[in-house]
Specification:
Length: 137
């Protein structure tokens, strides 16, 4: 589609204009899963070029992301940026359940912005978690 400022000459010429290039935003869900595990479970240290959203459903999970440890309780959301080294384990003596969603982002600008997000752990009562899961209100 082409946008023109003055197609028919009925209005004065445009003095200046800034326009963004056309782009299509696409992403793919990869390896999305809901998992329940027993005490002692762990997942080896790894990394991937995907944005990972990890939602704790039951129990406690300890996840080490780029050398920093985070403990998630039920309802907490953990965001792991693309290419961050991370490792997870059940941090309790009881079963643990979590939901993991991986996004493969195909837009270089959005990929760059996601890589700049500094906060990893969003607690269950935080504004962002409440907005993402309105049924919890």
């Amino acid at each position: 589609m082409t946008w023109q400022s003055n197609r028919d000459g009925a209005i004065p010429e445009v003095k200046g204009e800034m326009a963004l290039e056309n782009f299509r935003l696409a992403f793919q869900l990869v390896g999305t899963h809901w998992r329940t595990v027993d005490k002692g479970w762990s997942y080896f240290e790894h990394q991937h070029p995907l944005l990972e959203l990890n939602l704790m459903l039951q129990g406690r999970q300890l996840t080490k992301v780029s050398g920093v440890e985070y403990v998630q309780q039920a309802g907490d959301l953990l965001l792991i940026r693309p290419d961050e080294l991370h490792y997870s384990r059940n941090a309790a003596d009881e079963p643990m359940s979590y939901f993991a969603l991986h996004l493969d982002v195909d837009d270089p600008d959005l990929y760059y912005l996601l890589g700049r997000i500094e906060q990893h752990l969003f607690e269950a009562g935080s504004t962002i978690v409440l907005q993402l899961m309105p049924h919890k209100r």
